[in-house]
Amino acid sequence: MNLTVTGHHVDVTQSMRNYVSGKMKRLQRHSSRLSGIHVILTVEEKSRQKAEATIDVSGARLYADTTEPDMYAAIDLLTDKLDRQLIRHKDVQGKARRRQNLDRVPIDEPLEIAEFEVD
Asked: What is the pTM of this model?
């Protein structure tokens, strides 16, 4: 997994970088196919801290952002949003794969129809 953390109007400290890295490692439990994560931390005003991230997963690009008064709270909520998106993406991919497999299964034998006598 390639993790990039950048700051906009804020210096990204080593503790911020470690915190983001720890939170983003949590996302790997849902998908081992994460190819890249780009996180942007922004200070818009004194009371508005914004965290946004883009994740490249096999077959999709997921994006989430959140704004909070505290940067660490924004990172927490961002991770929760991305976590939900990854779960949804995984479910959709699994359903599509199962649907494709059902379409490919050939029926070699005709189905037997049971006959019942009605009294």
From this structure: 0.75
DSSP type of residue 87 = H
* Maximum CA extent, the chain: 85
Show Cβ contacts of residue 93 under 8 Å, excluding neighbours closer than 6 positions.
Answer: 59
pLDDT by position in tens, the chain (length 119): 788 999 998 889 999 999 999 998 888 887 767 888 999 999 988 789 999 999 998 878 999 999 999 999 999 999 999 999 998 988 887 776 666 665 555 566 666 776 777 76
Provide the 10 A C-beta neighbour count for residue 79: 21
For residue 47, the 8-state DSSP code is: T
3-state secondary structure 93-119: HHHHHHHHHHHHCCCCCCCCCCCCCCC
Tell me the domains of the chain and their CATH numbers.
2-104 (3.30.160.100)
Read off the amino acid at residue 56: D
SS3 of 32, please?
A: coil
